[in-house]
Amino acid sequence: MNHWTKYIVTALTFGALTNGAEAQSGVDFFKGKTVTYIVATAPGGGYDSYGRLVAEFMQRYLPGSTFVVRNMPGAGHLIGANAIYASKPDGLTIGTFNTGLIYNQIVGQEGVKFDLTKMSWIGKAASDPRVFAIASQSPIKSWKELLDQKTPVNFATAGVGSASYVETVMLTNALKLPIKLQTGYNGTDDQLAMRRGEIVGSIASRSSYDQFVKNGFGRYIVQIGGKDTDVPQLSSLVTDPKGQELVALVQSQGDIARLTAGPPGIPADITAALVGAYKQAMEDKDLQQRAEKLERPVEPLYGEDVLKAVKAALNQKPETITLLKEALGK
Amino acid sequence: MTIVRSPMTVVMLLIFTLMVGVASTYPPDARFMPFVVGIPAITLCLLQLFLDWRSKETEISADHRSEMEKAEERVSKMVGYKVDFEVARDAPDVTIIENSDEVAHNREFMIWGYVLSFVIGILVFGFWIAIPVFIAVFLNREAQYSPLKALLYALLGGGFMFAVFSFGLKLRLHPGFIADWFF
Amino acid sequence: MIDVMFGALGAMLSNPKTMGLMFVAVLIGLVVGATPGIGGRLSIALAIPFVFGMEMTQGAVFLLTMHAVNGTSGQISSIMFGVPGDGDDAATTIDGHPMAKKGEAGRALGASITASGVGGIIGAIVFAVMIPVLEPVVLAFSPAEFFLLAILGITFIAFLAGKGQIFKGIIVGLFGMILATIGMDPTSGIARFSGNYLFLWDGLSVVTAVLAIFAVPEMISLAAKGGSISAVSIENSSVSYRQLFSGVMEVPRHWFLALRTSIIGAMIGMVPGLGGSAAAWLCYGHAVQTSKTPERFGHGAVEGVIAPETASNAKEGGSLLPTLFFGIPGSSGMAVLMGAFLILGIQPGPAMFTTHLDLVWTLIWALVVGNLIAVSLLLFITRWVAVLTFINGAVLVPFILVLVTVGAYANEGQWENLLILLAISFIGWGLMRFNWPRAPFVIGLVLGKIAEESLHKALGLWGMSFFTRPLSLVLIGLICATIALAIYTNMRGKSAMPAGV
After folding, report:
1. What value does the mean pLDDT of chain C take?
2. Least confident span in A142-146, A300-304, A324-328, B19-23
3. Which of A310, B134, C63, C496 has minimal Cβ neighbours within 10 Å of its Cβ?
4. DSSP class of residue B65?
C-alpha cells in the first residue's frame, strides 16, 4: 500500500475502533454504579411491581450495575415525576409514573414541575387500553344500548382532577353520553359499588377490570386502544371528528403504559445504553412471563418512538385543551 | 391560676379561626367540611374560655414533690428529726432519681431543645450522621454516661439500625441537605 | 365440608416446607411490624420477586402469614413506650401505656398479645362461618352506612373526655377532623390547606400525626421528669412469667368482651371501605361504653387493651373474605396481597369457593396457625422485653426518639413529614401539659375523612333521602342511643377518663 492508503486505512480503523468504543463506553459507564429507579407510588400495586420487574432485568443487562428501587408516592404520581425530572442527568436516576400526567401537563396544573417532551425516554413496556365496564346486573349490553338510555346512568370515577375523572368528563361531554358522574371512588371502590348496584359502569383501565369481568361481575361494551379483539373499538363507533380526536387522546394514554423515563439532558451514549438494556429486558422470556402474570403482556416501544407518541399526545388542539380545562374545573 | 388553664384554649381557638378563615376562600364544596367542623369548634373554644375564666377551682392539691422528697419526709417523721438524703448518682443499685414536677416542667423546654436540634440535624446532615451524634450527646449529658460509653452505645445503636433499615428493608433514609449542596 | 376443612389443615401441618415458610414469614412480619411507620406493604412488595417461583399454596401461605402478623407486633412499643406504630396501635396505647407506667407492662403485654391471638382466630372463624352469607352482608353496606358508622365512632369521643372536660374532648376531636380535611378534596379538586405543598396533597400522614400526638410528648415528659417509664420500681412489681400469665388470663376473664370485639372487628374487616383503624377505635369505644366502671379507662384498664387488639387482628381475617370472594381487596394491605395472589396463579372470585375450597381453607388455617405461632413467640420474648420499662428513661429516650423520627420519615419518604412531626408534637405536648384529652384526636383524624367522603358519595347517589335506607335507620338509632347514654353518664358524674389522657 502506498503512504496515503496506509494513512486512510489507519484513520478508518481508528475511527471504527473508537466508535465501537463509544458504544461500549455507554454500557461500561454503569459498571460499579448504582442506578436509582424511582416508582411514583407506594410499595405494592401495579406500578411498583412492574417497576421492580423492569429494574431487576435492566440490571442484568447492564453488567456491574446495581438497580435500587425507590418509592416516592404522593400527589397522584406528581411527586415522583417531579423528582425524576429534577434529578441529575447522569443516567443514574430513572423511573416510572402514570401516563395520565399528560393531562396534568396539557392543562398546566400547578404542582407540575416537568415537561414530558424534554425527558429522556427509555421506553414503555405495555399497553393498558381503557374500557367501558358495565355491571352485570345492568341491561346495557352494547355501546348502542348505552347511547339509547333515556335517563343518565351512574358512572363511577376517582376524585375530581384525577385521570379517570378527566377522561370520563371529556368523553361524556364530547360524545353527549347519558352518564351521571359519581366521584370519589378510588382504587376498587367502584367495583364494589357495581356489585351493590349503585353504579352502572366505569371507564377504567382494562388491567384493573379483567379479573372482575372474568368472575362474571361485569362486561366490556367498548374499548379504546389495545390489541384485544373481543371488544369493539370506540374509534370505529364514533363519527364526530371532535369526538374522534378525544378518543385518540385517550387512546394514547392506554398505549403508553408502564413507561420508564429519565431527566432531560442525559448524554446520548448513556441513554442509548439504558435503552439497549431496556430492550434486552423486554425481550427476555423470563420477564415476559412474569409480566403476563402481573397483568398485561409486554408490548414495548423504545426511546425515540415513545417520545414521538408523547409529543403527539401533548400536542392538542385548543378546543381539546379547553375541554380538558373544563373537565379539571379550571 | 385560671390564666394557666387558658393557653391551650387560646391556641386551639387560633388554629380553628385560621383554618376556617382559609377555608372560606374555597368554593362551597371544598369548604363544607371545614366549616361543619371548624365553626362548632370555635364556638366550643369560646365557651371553654368562658368556663376557664369563670372557674374558681383551686389546683387540686396533689403532691408534686419528687419521690426522694416524699421519702425524706416519711423517714424524718419516723426518726423525729429532719433527715436529708443525698444519693450518689452512679451508685450501682440505686433506682433512678426522679425530679419534682416543677423541675420537670422546666426541663421539658430543654428537652425540646434536644428534639429540635436532632430534627434539624437529620434534615441537614441526614439520618446516619444525626442518629449517632444525638444518641451520644443525649446519653452523655442526660444519662451521665462517660463520653466513651455514650459513643459506643451510639455507634452500636446506629449500626444496628443501619443494618435493619438499609440492608434488610432497603429503605433509603434522608441523606441530608448537605448531600445536595455539596455533591 | 368437614373433610375438606381438616384435610387442608392436615396437608399444611404435615408439609415441612410450608411450615418452614410460615415460620420465616412470622419472624419477618413481627420484626417489620415492630417498628413504627414501616408498613406491611413494603415487606410484601419486597417478597413478591421471591414469590414468582413459589408453588401456589406455599406462596400464598407465606405472604398471608407475613401480612397477618405484621399488625401484631406494633403493640409492644405502643404499650411499653407509648409509641404507636399506626392509628390502630394508638388505641392500645391509651390504656396499655398507663399500665406500663404502673409497672404492669408484663401484664399488659400478656393481655394484648393473647387478645391479638384470640382476635385473629375468631376472625378466621367468622370468615369461615360467613362464607355462605357473605355477599348480602357485604353488599348491604353502602356509603350511607359508612357515613353513619363513622359518625357513630365519632360520637364515642364524648365518652372519652374526662369529667368536666367534655368540651375539651370534643374540641380535640374536631381538631382531628379538621386536620383530616387537609389535602386534595375529591369533591372539588381543590388542594385544601396545602397549596403548592405536594407532600400534603394526600392528606396528613396518620402515622406521623399519631407519633406526634402521643409518642413525642411522652418521651419529652419522661426525659424531663427522670426516672423510668414505670413509676413502680422493679422490686415492687413482678416482671416474671407470673405477671405475664396474669395478663394472659385477663382475656378469658373478659371473654364476652373479647368475643364481641373480635366479631365486630371481623365484620368491619369484611366490608371494604371503612378503613383500617376504624375497627380498633370503634371497639375501644364500645368497651368504654359497655363497661360498668368507665372511669378506669385511660388509667390502665385492661379492657382498653383487649378490645382494640382483638378487633384489629380479627379485621385481617375478615378482610380476606371480600378479597378472595369478590377479588375486591378489603384493605390496602389486601390489595397488595391480592396482586401477589394473582402472580401465584390464584384467581379470586366466587369460583374459588367451589373449585378451590381446599385452598380457601388452607388460607384460613394459615391465619389461625400463623397467629398461634406469632403469639407464642411474642409471649416468650415479652418477659425480657418488658424489663425495658424499668430502665432509666434517659437511656431509652434517645433510641425511641430515633425510631419515632425514622418511622415518621419512612412512612412516606418525605422529609417534610419531620417538620409536621415537630408541629403536631408541639400541640400534643401542649395538650398533655394542660391536661387536655388526646385520644379523641385520632378518632377525629381517622373517622373524619371517611365521614366526609362517604357523605359526599351518599348525597351524590341518593340525595338527602339516604337517611331512610333500612340499615341507615338502624345506625341512626344506635347513634342517638349512644349520645343519650353519653349525656346520661356524664350527668350522673361518672365519666370515662380522667384528665390528661
Report:
1. 84
2. A324-328
3. A310
4. S
Phi-psi region of C97 (alpha: psi -120 to 50; beta: other; left: phi over 0): alpha
pLDDT at B2: 43
What is the nearest CA distance from B62 to chain C, expressed in angstroms? 14
DSSP tally for chain B: helices H, then strands E: 7, 0
pLDDT digits (tens, 9 = 90+) for B123-153: 998 888 899 999 999 988 888 888 888 889 8
Cell 422490686 belongs to residue: C235
Contact residues, B window 43-102, toward C, CB-based 8 Å cutoff: 44-45, 47-48, 51, 67, 95-99, 101
Residue range(s) of every CATH 3.40.190.150 domain in chain A? 31-127+255-317
For residue A189, give the amino acid letter: D
Task: Express each pLDDT in B31-90 by its tens digit.
Answer: 888 998 999 999 999 988 888 887 755 444 455 566 667 777 778 778 877 777 765 555
For chain A, residues classed under CATH 3.40.190.10 are 130-224
Query: Is C275 within the bounds of a domain?
Result: yes
Whether pLDDT at B117 is above 90: yes
From chain A, the residues in CB contact with B172 under 8 A are 68, 70
Size of interface A-C (CB pairs under 8 A): 148
The domain covering A31-127+255-317 belongs, at the CATH homologous superfamily level, to Bordetella uptake gene, domain 1 (3.40.190.150)
CA distance C426 to C374: 36
pLDDT at B15: 93
In a domain, C498, yes or no: no
Of residues C93 and C86, the one with the higher pLDDT is C93
Q: Which residues have C-beta within 8 Å of that of residue C73, sequence separation ≥ 6?
A: C29, C30, C31, C33, C34, C374, C378
Using one digit for the tens of pLDDT, what is the confidence trace for C233-266? 665 555 567 788 888 899 999 999 999 999 999 9
* Residues of A within an 8 Å Cβ radius of B: 68-70
| Cα distances (Å, whole numbers) of residue C442 to A81, A269, C188, C209 | 32, 53, 25, 8
Cβ-Cβ contacts under 8 Å between A and B: the total is 4
Domain locations in chain B as residue ranges: 2-54, 64-96, 99-182
Tens of pLDDT, residues A66-106: 898 888 888 888 899 999 999 988 889 999 999 888 888 88
Interface confidence, given as ipTM, is 0.81
Contact by Cβ (8 Å): C178, C488: no
* Dist CA C470 CA B65 (whole Å): 58
Which position has the grid cell 401495579? A46
Q: Which CATH code fits A130-224?
A: 3.40.190.10
Query: Would you call C199 an interface residue with chain B, using a CB distance cutoff of 8 Å?
Result: no
Which among C315, C401, C267, C373 has a CA at the least distance from the CA of C40?
C315
Q: Which residue of B has its CA nearest to A43?
A: B171
pTM of the model: 0.84
Question: Mutate which of C42, C198, C455 to disrupt the A interface (most A C-beta within 10 Å)?
Answer: C198
Q: Which three cell numbers stand for residue C196?
A: 403548592
The DSSP element (H or E) to which A159 belongs, if any, is none
Distance of CA B152 to the CA centre of its chain: 25
CA–CA dist C63, C402 (Å, integer): 29
**What residues 97-156 of chain B have any CB closer than 8 A to a CB of chain C?**
97-99, 101, 104-108, 110-112, 114-116, 118-119, 122-123, 127, 131, 134-135, 138-139, 142-145
- SS3 state of residue C492: helix
Residue C500 above 70 pLDDT?
no
Cα distance from B38 to chain C (closest Cα, Å)? 7
